[in-house]
Amino acid sequence: MVHAKDDGRNSFNYFTQDMQQNVQRQLFLKKALSAALTSNLLSVAFQPIVSITEQKINKFEALVRWKNEGQWISPEEFIPIAEEFSLIRPLGEFVLNEACRQLKILKSQGFNDIVFNINRSVYEIPLNKSENGQWLMVIEQHGLKPSDICFELTESALAPDKRNNERLFNQLRVAGCTIALDYFGTGYSSLSYLRRIPVDYIKIDKSFIRGMSTNEGDNVLVSTIIVMSKSLGKKVVTEGVETKEQLQQLTELGCDCIQGYYFSKPLPSEHLVNYLTDYKY
Ligand code: C2E
Ligand code: MG
Q1: ∠ at Cα 100 (60, 276), nearest 5°?
Q2: What is the pLDDT of residue 11?
Q3: Of 10, 12, 57, 268, which residue is 20 to 30 A from 42 by alpha carbon distance?
Q4: If you measure from the C-alpha of residue 152 to the centroid of ligand 2, how many angstroms do you get, rounded to a whole number?
Q5: How confident is the model over 192-235, as pLDDT tens digits?
Q6: Best residue for ligand 1 mutational test, from 79, 94, 96 (most atoms within 8 Å of Cβ)
Q7: What confidence tens digit (pLDDT) does each residue in 67-81 have?
Q8: What CATH code is carried by the domain that includes residue 164?
Q9: Chain centroid offset of residue 176 CA
Q10: Which ligand is nearest to the CA of 152?
């Protein structure tokens, strides 16, 4: 019934074995994820983001990790489940706390100018403005400054009907946090959202980078997004950079920061100090 409604109503869908298996898998993961959250079984990995202009690592993106019964489950599978079954808030709270704890450790070892990027789902944004200070409170509780954290949001969080969101983003920026717009180019990529909401960084989705060497269209899109973002005063981060050729192309196009397997896969927290110490551009 749900699938038929999704198809625009007034239609029908046959029930299939696949649907049954899908629902069973979702329910299984929901139960296991809920238990993992209460038993503190999730972890966070950190992927470096390299500034091309400065040729140094100035950020890491925090990415949640979950090993269930010896098997890694991809965030692409369990984040939508967390969103659907109201587990995304405790999950996000865990990631922010763990990231702040790790950043504090890095700072205590002399890595003072590193920023951590935290992904935030639209479902984590409070509906009520009285709760808008919560993220900042966590950051301050760890003895960090708001400018140590950049929040990565997707375009859906910027939609005009979500009035508290705009208030929250402004509040975060006034406090000193930065905001990045994730997955740019994959949704509506509305220019009016960009004008209205003060984002600092635009992250170009990895699907465009993959196609750059073979598809002239992707090449043109990436270069246009870079020029447009810079004219609007935003910095550009490209994700999914895996080869030297991609790095060279993006450097020539004027991209500010690079993230991808070419520099490093997401790292467990205990590898960060060594990675930063050994790093050469
Ligand atoms: P994202 O925010 O776009 O994060 C980047 C994803 O690209 C990560 O996947 C990362 O491992 C992958 N990646 C990085 N460089 C490369 C590369 O060179 N090649 C390829 N093929 N992939 C690369 P991951 O960790 O599986 O995360 C998937 C998505 O799950 C993230 O996409 C983000 O939207 C979501 N996510 C992860 N952690 C969190 C979290 O703590 N909270 C929320 N709300 N969402 C999260
Ligand atoms: Mg992200």
Answers
A1: 40
A2: 84
A3: 57
A4: 6
A5: 777 777 899 999 999 999 888 788 888 899 999 999 999 999 99
A6: 79
A7: 999 999 999 999 999
A8: 3.20.20.450
A9: 19
A10: 2
Residue 252's closest CA among 279, 216, 227, 281?
A: 227
pTM: 0.94
Is the predicted pLDDT of residue 161 greater than 80, yes or no? no
The arithmetic mean of pLDDT across residues 70-99, rounded, is 97
The total number of structural domains that make up the chain: 1
- Residue 7 domain flag: no
Residue 104 lies in a domain: yes
Note the ligand closest to the C-alpha atom of 156.
1
**Which residues lie at CB < 5 A from ion ligand 2?**
119, 152, 182
* 47 domain-assigned: yes
- Nearest partner of 170 among 195, 198, 192, 145, judged by Cα: 198
In-domain check, residue 122: yes
Where in the sequence is the domain holding 127, given as residue range(s)?
A: 43-278
Tell me the CA–centroid distance for residue 167 and ligand 2, in Å.
21
The H or E element spanning position 104 is helix 88-108
- Where is pLDDT greater, at 8 or 231? 231
Q: Considering only residues 208 and 96, tell me which one the structure prediction assigns the higher pLDDT.
A: 96
User: Is residue 190 pLDDT above 80, yes or no?
Assistant: no
Q: In the block, which residue shows the tokens 């140590």?
A: 148
Q: How many C-alpha atoms does 165 have within 13 Å on its Cβ side?
A: 23
| Residue list, ligand 1 pocket, CB within 6 Å | 47, 63-64, 74-76, 79, 92, 95, 119-121, 152, 182, 206, 239-242, 259-261, 266
Distance 5 CA to ligand 2 centre (A): 31
Nearest ligand 1 atom to alpha carbon 64? 38
